[in-house]
Amino acid sequence: MDCSAFRFLDHQQKAHFVSRNPITFLDSAPFCSTELGHCLQANKMEAEPVNVSEFQELVKLALPKMYYDFYAGGAEDQHTLEENVKAFQRILIRPRVLIDVSRTDTSTTIMGYKTSAPIMIAPTAMHKLAHPEGEVATARASATANVIMVLSFSSTCTIEEVASSCNAVRFFQLYVYKRREISAFMVQRAERNGFKAIILTVDTPRLGRREADIKNKMVAPQLKNFEGLISTEVNTDKGSNLEAFASGVLNASLCWKDIGWLKSITSLPVLIKGVLTREDALRALEVGVAGIIVSNHGARQLDYSPATINVLEEVVVAVQGKIPVLFDGGVRRGTDIFKALALGAHAVMIGRPVIYGLAAKGEHGVSQVINMLKDELELTMALSGCCTVKDISRSHLSTEIDRLHCRL
Ligand SMILES: Cc1cc2nc3c(=O)[nH]c(=O)nc-3n(C[C@H](O)[C@H](O)[C@H](O)COP(=O)(O)O)c2cc1C
Active site residue: 38, 297, 346, 396, which one? Predict the structure, then answer.
């Protein structure tokens, strides 16, 4: 097999091939030595990854650095990126004992749809950089697991390709571009193709400063959804072409009154993603959104914005159960999902872990990641004395603030 063919294998296949053909590879052209190095290292990782962090390690070895950094990185000092994960670690679980947990059930209902767990796939851009099957593989894995996938506006597979790949409940994430007609067209396509809700991302008037992408001169591919509408191939000598593209299209003047416009062009429920304060949660209720997603965009936008788990309760309290509050940011374990639910989230969305599963093993890897998190959640529930998702309550947690109050 020559080097160009090797590039088209998925990472699992590459590792497998290298393990069978080390000599062939050592003899092959020098320009694939980096890839070979990655695969040999990946191959050395023993057995199957047993948690999300191990998937991430595998992918760090297997993916080209430019793509790994694009997926894993955050904004500027990456303070919020670290905090999104660490803030979970400061929250402790208060388990109850002597409860019959011989039967546990992680299923729940999200926006009226029954799912196998309070887990959703967060919208993340450009899955084909992780795996040649891109969002179609992710869609199939989420359908098999019966969890809702939110397709990114910036997907590498088209809305139609994802919709026809399998039957499932899916939501569509939207950016409102300066050229609003492009966004309106995407909403119509999502609606026509059976998507069940529109999730408007509201934390991106401009692109956050992702320094790894700038240093790597990250190159975003042409997005098929926009063919004939807008060119995503922007040339720039300086830094990442993502920044140059985003500054051309993102609409920094989008504001609360525009939610009315969006609601007027679709019959689908509109949720907003990127709320971090009680003030904005109250405004969201006023303008009549169908749900809120507490999110800091996986710490890729405003550095030193709070870890999302630290502000979830503030939003939940403001909303008073009038609309569902979903959550994302830093979820890496079933215990994290349990904690977010105890603080009032209806469900959590998973961003990077899904990409790591996809990059490592395609559709099967995404399935493994979802199942790992589901199993971990189910075990956490059993060990905490909760048979169903509804049994998880605020009294199952002790946050830093709770512990401070105890001392006063
Ligand atoms: C590589 C990457 C691409 C993303 N692309 C989008 C996007 O296109 N639209 C969007 O609303 N959010 C996007 N997000 C943010 C995710 O929807 C989600 O908020 C975040 O990943 C959750 O944090 P986690 O990765 O720690 O789970 C992206 C995040 C990552 C890591």
Answer: 297
